[in-house]
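Morning!

This is the sequence you dropped in the shared folder:
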Amino acid sequence: MYGKACAPEYQGPLTTLSVNSSLTDVLAAGTEQLRAAEREGRPGEAARSGLAVAEAHRRLGRVEEADRAWKASYRAARAAGDVAAMAWALWSGGTLARQRGAFPLARRLLGLAAEFGERGGDVVVRGYSLAGLAETGRIQGDYEAVGRLHEQLLAEARRRGEARHTVWALEGIAQMHRNTGALDTAYALFEEAAEIAARAEDRRGHAWALRGLADVVSVRDGDTGRALGLLSEAETTCRAMKLSGALAYNHKMRGNVLYRAGRHAEARTWYERALEEFRAMGEPRGEALSRLGLAKSLARLGRDRRETAAELADLARTLERIGLRHARDMVARAQEEFGVDAGTAAEAAR
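The structure's back. Tokens below.
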């Protein structure tokens, strides 16, 4: 049995905020409490209020503001001698680093966060940090290394009845199954995640689960109408909560669904929109995936073969540099699909 989803990153005076609170509301409340704590010389409260500020900025796609905020939260926590609050700040910084494509830094910060969480006796931040490490490995395509950790964290979340963490783990495992072709298993896991999130009133988790379901429905069933309907439902939540990153990934997935349906001109429009959104928030993974979809759409719409080859070759180098193995494999498949290789790209460069 799962209770109502909570947001442990909203701490101190901000515990009254809901997991579904609009991020603009979180930012306003967190900033107000942070300023009051700083005026009154309460570094512990400043650290915890600053955490909410950092997370609101990160989820709104304001990466520079988020970077300053988590570091300020860490400094305040250190001044207060609050090891658990230091762990939460490191978790926020590690999550931001992953969002920005800085995977080695993400692993270092999240590893420290897990260590500090254990030292500070905060099992929740330790769990969130280990989950962050697992997600970092999953995004990079290192499924064998992090698959067991995902399963372990899922079991722990189920045992404690933590709906939000259960939903996160189910979605991560589902994504790995989807990417390795086990579509029925992926669908069942995304469906369970959506059901738990809905019962626990975790709208963010529900929106991500709907996106996953839309992907599988599109690939496995070829049901474009249902997939687009699921994405529209998820988009309503993303807009209501100001989830900039989730909305951009929703738009990118809409492009995927339309591309699979052969509606390449529509797909191009959505990939262009997602690309603009990811660039605005400095999200290199989403940017690269949108570029890939856009390159494929343009190729289907008659783009010069040499231009397609050059674009895909550049994407391959970008993904290799970032360290996204699964996405790099996707580019290789696109190069095969369109019959372009390194030789074609070299010819285009001459």
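Headline: The chain has 17 helices and no strands.

More detail when I'm at my desk.
O.
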